Amino acid sequence: MPTTVPALLTDAAGAAFHRGTVERRDLGPHDVAIDIAFAGICHSDIHQAREEWGGAIFPMVPGHEIAGTVSAVGSEVERYAVGDRVGVGCFVDSCRECEYCLAGEEQFCLKGNVGTYNARGYDGEVTYGGYSTAVVVDERYVLRIPDGIELDVAAPLLCAGITTYSPLRHWGAGPGKRVAVVGLGGLGHMAVQLAHAMGAEVTVISRTRSKEEDGRRLGADHYVATSEEGALKALRNTFDLIINTVSADVDIDRLARTLRVGGSLVYVGAPSERQSFAVFSLIGGRRSVAGSNIGGIRETQEMLDFCGEHGIGAVVERIGADDVTAAYDRVVDGGARYRYVIDTATIPA
Ligand SMILES: [Zn+2]
Ligand SMILES: [Zn+2]
Predict the structure, then answer these.
(1) pLDDT tens-place string over residues 101-150
(2) Distance, CA 100 to ligand 2 centroid (Å)?
């Protein structure tokens, strides 16, 4: 019999969250049951709960930055045992046989991976995410959280962490490389820490100087405010890689010209409007504009282990179940410093 567990639900686009319950499936042979301790609030939770990306399934329980402890394991589970500290990220299943799944890049599954919430499993059942006290997930899609990372600061690594780690690795951030991070929010504050730990020289590009102290504390070597006249112009031919984390429009031409020859401007934020640029901004320096989307399970584990070795976690503010609706507005207004995590102990009525 499925288990009924407390959850925070929203019943329609933009509606306030309320306490309720959802059912978690029976433990299959390869399933892991997880007692959730914390769930991060990702900007994409807000887009989906407000139906800004279309096709939302209500009632919805968002949450794909999940950290907790294994409470039970199925008969065939090999990787996890009761008591292990684990996490779940943006997807909970994939086809397991396409070229990308076989390569460990399940985020690009050709059949379409199964989102942790606001999705349907291949069995047709709706998935419910981490704003809840427990979840059941196949062990292949469960991550191990290293002992050195507290669960609250680990939760946002499952989306914000891997979203920035994967492009930094793919485009070769490391010693001798200059990396710029555009925007210092939930994604940006992770990108700065990770790029710094990889050994790159890191510059924060933000609109104002209001976050300069934070940026430097997180590991930035330089801080540039685009509201200051000529700030980007002075940086021509500087960066090997720019990670753009903002979901608003940016001036691609001005940013691209700060790239060295062969450099890449990589989108991990998702502006809702079409973006445009002058082709000459690219061909004059063999530059690329690219995009990147989370990461596969293997790379997500690599990211968590890297964070464990380097003592990296998200900068979080713990909130309770009653604060979630208001926290959404603060995230949209750019007021989060830098990630809200829901203490799921506050969810049961
Ligand atoms: Zn996310
Ligand atoms: Zn696949």
Answers:
(1) 999 999 999 999 999 999 999 999 999 999 999 999 999 999 999 999 99
(2) 6
Q: Which numbered ligand comes closest to the C-alpha of 296?
A: 2
Give me ligand 2 centre to Cα 236, in Å.
Answer: 41
299 Cα to the center of ligand 2, angstroms: 16
The predicted-structure confidence for 26-81, as pLDDT tens digits, reads as follows 999 999 999 999 999 999 999 999 999 888 999 999 999 999 999 999 999 999 99
| 8 Å CB contact between 258 and 232 | yes
Q: Using CA atoms, how far apart are residues 243 and 180, in angstroms rounded to an integer?
A: 6
Distance (angstroms) between ligand 1 centre and the Cα of 245 equals 12
- C-alpha of residue 293 to centroid of ligand 1, in Å: 10
Report the pLDDT value the prediction gives residue 272, as an integer from 0 to 100.
80
Q: Using a CB cutoff of 8 Å and minimum separation of 24, what contacts does 169-177 make?
A: 169/198, 169/299, 170/292, 171/240, 171/241, 171/264, 171/266, 171/290, 172/240, 172/241, 173/198, 173/199, 173/200, 173/240, 173/241, 174/198, 174/199, 174/200, 175/199, 175/200, 177/201, 177/240, 177/241
